[in-house]
Structure formats: C-alpha cells, structure tokens
Amino acid sequence: ARVRLYKWEVKYEFKSPDCYKKLVITINGRTPGPSIIAQQGDTIVVELKNSLLTENVAIHWHGIRQIETPWMDGTEGVTQCPILPGETFVYRFVVDRPGTYLYHAHYGMQREAGLYGSIRVGLPDGQTEPFLYDYDRSIILNDWYHKSTYEQAAGLSSIPFVWVDEPQSILIQGRGRFNCNAPGIEAGLCNATSPECVPYALTVVPGKTYRLRIGSLTALSALSFEIEGHNMTVADQDPSRNYWASAKVVSRNSTTPNGLAIFNYYPNHPRRNPPTPPPVRPRWDDVGPRLSQSLAIKAHRGYIHPPPQTSDRVIVMLNTQNRVNGHVRWSVNNVSFNLPHTPYLIAYKHNLLHAFEQTPPPDGYDYANYDISSVNTKNVNATTSNAAYRLAFNTTVDIILQNANTMNPNNSETHPWHLHGHDFWVVGYGTGKFDMFNDPKKYNLVDPIMKNTVAVHPYGWTALRFRADNPGVWAFHCHIESHFFMGPLGNFSDCAFSQCLLGVEILNKLAINKIEDITRCQV
Ligand code: C2O
Fold first, then answer.
1. Which residues contact 41 (CB under 8 A, 6 or more apart)?
2. pLDDT tens track for 210-262
3. Which residues form a coiled coil (predicted)?
4. Domain annotation covers residue 435
5. Which of 90, 110, 127 is where one domain is finished?
6. Percent of the chain scored above 90 by pLDDT?
7. CA dist., res. 452 & res. 252, Å (int)
8. Are residues 191 and 117 in the same domain?
C-alpha cells in the first residue's frame, strides 16, 4: 500500500463551463477537480488550502467509509469544524475497498458551485476484477445554475420562499452548452466560442471494451444517461462516425436542455458532430421504467455477501414538506433537522453533551392516519431538532424511506438518500404506503446490491438494511443540494432533509480520546 499525496488549493475563479461566465469554485484551477486514483489499502493525503478568501470549506469523500477515522469524513457540523479562509487542513484516510467514489464540498451549497471530483480505487497489484476490459474512464454528470449559490441560498431562506428553479444546463465531465442567444442574456457574459464549453469528447478505439464509471453529483435533477446506439456493454457500433452521449432530466418537468457529449470513435475527429439528431428524453413523470430498473439490478453472486436475514431495529422515515416558522422545510417524521453549533464528534471529545438535544428523533410516524397521496393538511408545521439517532454497536438496522406528496397537489419528488460511513443493502422498493406486515416478506435477502446512495421514487418507499459497525457520527440525508442546504451559523435554514445517525455505544467502542481535534473550533 502506498501513500498518495495531493496538494489542493481551493478558490473562486471566473469560468464558463456551459459558455456562461460565472464565479465557480476550483481546485488547482479546475472543476471538476483532479481525480484521486489509488489502490485498495492506500492512504490518501490531501493538503487542502482554503483560498476562498471569505468562505469556509470542508470536503466529504462520498462512499469512503472512514473506518476508524470518522473525523476525516468532511461533514462540517457533524464530524469537523469548517476549514477557515487562509487555513490549510490535511485530510488523511485509507481507501479500504476498490470502487468508484466521488468527493465534494460539504459546506453550504459549495458543491454546486463546482467543488467536486471523482475517486477511483483499484484492486491491489496481482488481483483482478470479475470482468475484463481494456480501458477505464470516469465521467461525472452535474446540473448547473447561473445564479450564485448565495442568491439561491438566500431565496430558499426567505419568506416568501424563492425556489431555485430548474438548472440552466447539464454538465458532462464539467462541460455543457447554454444557448447564448436566449433572451435576456447580458452581452459579454455568454460566449458560445469559449474553449471552456467545447463538448466533452470521450474517445474510444473500435473493438475495445471500456469500463465507464459514471457518477452524478447533480444539485437537483435525476438524470437518465445514454450513449446513442450502444447498449452499454461493449463499444461495438459502426466505427466510421461519432455518437452522442447525453444526460437528460427525468425526475421533474424540467426546462433544462439535455447535456450532450461526443462519443468519439478513433480516428474520427473528436469535435465532429454525429450525423444523427441527439437522443430525446423519456417522459419526465414515467416512473415505471425507473422503478423496474431499480428492481432489476441484482448483485453478482459471490461478490457481495447477502445481508443478515433479520434486523434488530426498524426505523421508518416519512419524508414530508412542512413549514417551520413560515419557512418551507423538509422533514422526517415531522421533525426537521438542524445542525448543532458544535460538531457532534467535537462535542463528544470535549464532553459537551449539552451541545445537542439528547432525546432521539422518532422511529416512525402515525402510519394509520397519514395519507401519503395527498397534500398534508394535518401536520403542516414541523418541529426542529438537532438530536441524532443512536444505534447500538454491531446491530442490524433497517431504514424504510417513505415518500409522500409535497405541499403542491399531485406532486411527489425523487429523493436520493445517502448514508455516510456505511454501505447498505437495498432490500426492497415499492409504490404507495409501506406495509409493515406484508412488505418485509418480499424483501430480497438473497442477492440485493449494496450502495451508499439510493433513490426513493415518487409516492414510493425504499427499504435498506445495514450493519451499524462503524463507530462515529454519520450524516444520512437527501443528496439534493437545495433539500440539504444549510444556512449561516450551521442551521439548516430551509428544506433540511437530513438526519444524523450516531451510536453512543459505538462511540464508547471508539476510544473517545482517539477522536482527533480537527481544525480550530469555537467550542
Ligand atoms: Cu455526498 Cu453528505 O454527501
């Protein structure tokens, strides 16, 4: 195993990723930032200098479990205090499993200002994958707004509520194409000939097999990704031309144009447009195919262990939209989450147990009387709390994420829920209200896949199971940036949709004095 050292400087720069110029956050001048490429067992060291001048920063290594290093998880407010402007902070952690991961800012809404990148962890020397390929490529998909994250954040926090609306572009590997002739675009801000917005070209050699690692870090949209004419197993089409690769919004009735890249067969020129029109998007509200795709994906036997056949605890999380003091918020079981002022791990280290509320949030909701299919009229107002769930060490926990109608009639959204510090088995998906008695009998306990982020489809539920075997305090939240957004002073000022999972017994196992003091905190 090796040590891989990265020196990163994070700062604001003017860039035009979709031809429209705005301030974006770069790492060493780039967005997406540099890829981390390592092998299982390596230690990653990132020396991060915060040159944002007036803004804090923290970076989360999405999918890396941080076994025995929970303080390196990069979740500001949960595992660390933010890195202050001008400071350098050193992240150091082991990548313990091969796979495709992402990293992104976990402070405010900086992720959607461009602070993200990919992590690729290969097998150790001498070991081989269960499938063969010639080349390995990573592609990150993202959606892109022209308004600054501050304007968006301020809108989300005001009364009346100002929604962020649909993004202007979809970026494929950091590049998109906004129509500079659109009405109302100020002259000089949009330059269709800027080299920064030339479509991303993925060049392949005919007859070779490519592994594509496709990650999405969208702020709002769920995407459908396709490569025209390819069934995504092998590069096997007519090699005399190029093809489109496109990413399209599917979860919302969106005005955002499709993202386009060029799938380039060598030796065709990578800028030559394919001769056919780009693929069209599926109907946005056609949930059926997405649900059946979710259901169809099974683990390759022998590579992922089946889950424990029973669980020790079941937590049902009803996802609703509510109001708190007139603000629009998301909540779980009618409780909307606030971050404490002192990150949990630091509170533990210094024994500051008054730093967060001690009564844990509810494990369920009023199943019998809650109608998930219409606008919530009973519990319009949610309460707020910074309490965390406490999971006993080495227990098996089921979480059922139950979707519901939002505050608008006939509307339920897609939520990608992400668990830090663990992988989970996705044991079931369903439509309508989860049936505590019958649905668990239909769980796939034979060959479910393991993930760390999973979709909860509109009006549906998703069941996941995991072992609480990684001592620490871990965020569990909807990965939509504006649903997760945290306002000043560490409070979720709006749309908070997040829960922290914490194990007291877990933390006792992890000798508390091992918890490192991370960055200068005002405790
Ligand atoms: Cu990728 Cu807490 O996020």
1. 1, 94, 95, 96, 124
2. 999 999 999 888 888 888 888 766 567 889 999 999 998 887 888 898 999 99
3. none
4. yes
5. 127
6. 56
7. 23
8. no
